[in-house]
Backbone:
């Protein structure tokens, strides 16, 4: 596929190329990976400034996103890459291969520093917020080898006010403490005051008046931040896909349902009497669970839940609106968010909508059928994530329009779709893209799946 960068993407590419230390703070869905790979390609093969690149990313991003982006774009075809995930042997083998870019998941940084000769002259940290804890093992391990790399690129979403404390460690990884200081205590004294306390024990800090501007002024010379939105022709609606993959046993259940219109599961049988019912069952399975014939919920996989967790992390505290379709989707999402202690609320009342619009809900859950005309949500956030996708073009457009509308404070609205690879999700997306409002699109899609 030919890569034709937007103006802001070209600006970011040139920024990375002309700055040995660069923090790219852009909202999810704006193409940080493609931007970075294009800049790396130029630095590797046009300017000859670097020879070996280490990319550090969350596991699924390292295993899937970076390789997919390299394979996707025509201009990156000369890049040789090696993905160092999996068992220790697989990781060691990956580092022994001759490549231009080596990709590793963040959980294995300490292992890599201890077991692999550090021969990289450029480091890409995606997601930079992975290193927000200055006391973590991964932070300390990376800081040991950081001086050996002459170029460092940090990728993350635009941070919220709550994320200002995290910037200390994140930028120390980049500039080794030149801008925000070398010590967390001094950073707190300069930019924050105690918020929640019990005697001398401080539980949380609050930014001092003007602290956000002072911090951004300090790091502005190496940062493409929220101000980069000025380079977009705004307002802009950005659609993006986060692709996930079922494991073989999970895919086998889906394929059985697809081919036989029935599947035998632990909690009972799932059958489909016609193409319409089959479409619903396949959609449920793509999301991670399915209702059996006796009404029980059968768990299939957690791939979309894991992806949602990654997306929430990449938001850096900014509010996220999540659209779900089935009740079991809602139940599983809420269970995961409780487990991870992530604040959330259903948008099902005037009170919850008011809280969202005041920015008081980190993750808001909404059903497309309740996101009708006249519901104003644009004050609370600018990013929508589709956990489960609807066939209804009307409901889809109505839900997107809750954020993408006049009065939206952000200059960019991002709509992220979690798509399970090789499933009916792909057919639904095509039907929406081609604005096919008829039931025949549904039937044809199911038939196409059956013919696979």
Residues:
């Amino acid at each position: 596929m030919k890569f034709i960068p937007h103006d802001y993407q070209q600006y970011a590419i040139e920024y990375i190329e002309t700055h040995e230390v660069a923090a790219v703070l852009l909202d999810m869905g704006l193409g940080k990976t493609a931007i970075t790979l294009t800049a790396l390609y130029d630095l590797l093969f046009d300017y000859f400034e670097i020879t070996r690149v280490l990319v550090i990313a969350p596991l699924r991003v390292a295993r899937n996103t970076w390789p997919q982006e390299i394979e996707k774009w025509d201009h990156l075809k000369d890049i040789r890459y090696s993905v160092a995930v999996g068992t220790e042997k697989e990781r060691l083998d990956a580092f022994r291969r001759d490549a231009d870019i080596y990709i590793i998941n963040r959980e294995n940084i300490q292992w890599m520093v201890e077991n692999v000769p550090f021969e990289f002259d450029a480091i890409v940290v995606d997601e930079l917020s992975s290193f927000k804890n200055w006391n973590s093992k991964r932070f300390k391990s990376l800081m040991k080898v950081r001086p050996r790399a002459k170029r460092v690129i940090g990728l993350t979403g635009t941070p919220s006010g709550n994320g200002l404390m995290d910037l200390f460690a994140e930028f120390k990884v980049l500039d080794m403490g030149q801008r925000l200081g070398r010590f967390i205590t001094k950073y707190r004294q300069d930019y924050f005051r105690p918020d929640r306390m019990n005697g001398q024990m401080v539980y949380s800090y609050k930014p001092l008046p003007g602290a956000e501007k002072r911090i951004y002024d300090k790091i502005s010379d190496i940062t493409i931040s929220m101000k980069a939105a000025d380079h977009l022709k705004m307002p802009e609606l950005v659609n993006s896909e986060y692709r996930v993959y079922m494991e073989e046993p999970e895919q086998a259940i889906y394929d059985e349902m697809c081919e036989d219109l029935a599947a035998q599961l632990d909690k009972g049988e799932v059958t489909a009497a016609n193409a319409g019912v089959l479409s619903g069952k396949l959609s449920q399975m793509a999301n991670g669970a399915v209702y059996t014939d006796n009404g029980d919920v059968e768990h299939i996989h957690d791939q979309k839940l894991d992806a949602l967790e990654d997306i929430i992390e990449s938001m850096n505290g900014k509010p996220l609106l999540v659209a779900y379709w089935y009740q079991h989707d809602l139940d599983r999402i809420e269970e995961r968010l409780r487990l991870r202690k992530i604040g959330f609320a259903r948008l099902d009342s005037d009170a919850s909508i008011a809280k969202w619009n005041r920015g008081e809900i980190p993750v808001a859950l909404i059903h497309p059928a309740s996101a009708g005309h006249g519901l104003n949500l644009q004050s609370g956030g600018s990013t929508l994530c589709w956990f489960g996708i609807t066939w209804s073009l009307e409901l889809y457009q109505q839900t997107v329009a809750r954020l993408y509308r006049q009065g939206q404070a952000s200059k960019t609205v991002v709509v992220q779709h979690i798509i399970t690879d090789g499933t009916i999700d792909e057919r639904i997306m095509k039907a929406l893209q081609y604005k096919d409002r008829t039931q025949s699109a549904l039937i044809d899609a199911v038939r196409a799946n059956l013919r696979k």
